[in-house]
Amino acid sequence: MKKQLLIAGLSSLFVIAGCGQSEENADKNKENEKQSQEEATNGDKQEKDNAQLQSTLLDNQMDLTKELRPHNVAVLDIKDKISNLKTIKDEKELNQAKTDVKNQSKEAQKEVEKAIKKIESFSIKGELSEDHQKQFNNALADLKAYFTEVKTVLNNPVEADFSKAEEKFSSFEEKIGTLYKEVDLISPNMKKELS
Within a domain: residue 4? Predict the structure, then answer.
């Protein structure tokens, strides 16, 4: 009889302990489920924020490109003509080409001045974090430095050396590229965009 009571007591104890364990597991499962839902909600919010950020950057890139492309095309055109001077063998033809380059460079400088003014007045549309705004504006500063250097070089177009200007443009592209990569976008080819 004592054995049966002992067995019954132990059985009851195991059943009670098992029930307690089940309740504890149920509580843990509920807590894990709640945490998973919170993580999913946070992930959705982050994904939505990232999509908004991507959209803002792409919209601003499109606006900037639209504003500056005509002016940069004038720069690329004069650069081609300056580069072409090296291929002309005939002295008379070369002198005429140099005169043309000098005249055209004045027009190109006017286009460069317009580009600089547009960069100075460019304001970011949409919402960007303070850090992303700073990165974008730093990139714009390099783009402005590119145009400023081009303007200086065109003071003496026949002897023009655009290497410093190209360095500034490369720095601009690198900074924009870094910003784009941070928000999971492919770095734009701004040289192509602005030509």
Answer: no
The predicted model gives 173-186 an average pLDDT of 91
Q: Maximum distance among all alpha carbons in the chain?
A: 129
Alpha carbon distance 88, 82 (integer Å): 11
Q: Which among 20, 2, 22, 23 has a CA at the least distance from the CA of 10?
A: 2
Mean pLDDT of all residues in 71-76: 95
Number of independent structural domains in the chain: 1
Chain-centroid distance, C-alpha 124:
13
Q: Indicate whether 6 belongs to any domain.
A: no
User: Measured between alpha carbons, how far is 14 from 20 in angstroms, rounded to an integer?
Assistant: 10
Residue 40 lies in a domain: no
pLDDT at residue 176 above 80? yes
67 within 8 A of 144, measured Cβ to Cβ: no
Residue 129 is predicted with a pLDDT of 85
Q: Read off the pLDDT of each residue in 148-173 and give the average, rounded to a whole number.
A: 94
Q: Whose CA is closest to 119, among 29, 36, 19, 190?
A: 190
- Does 28 fall in a domain? no
Single-letter amino acid code for the residue at 55:
S
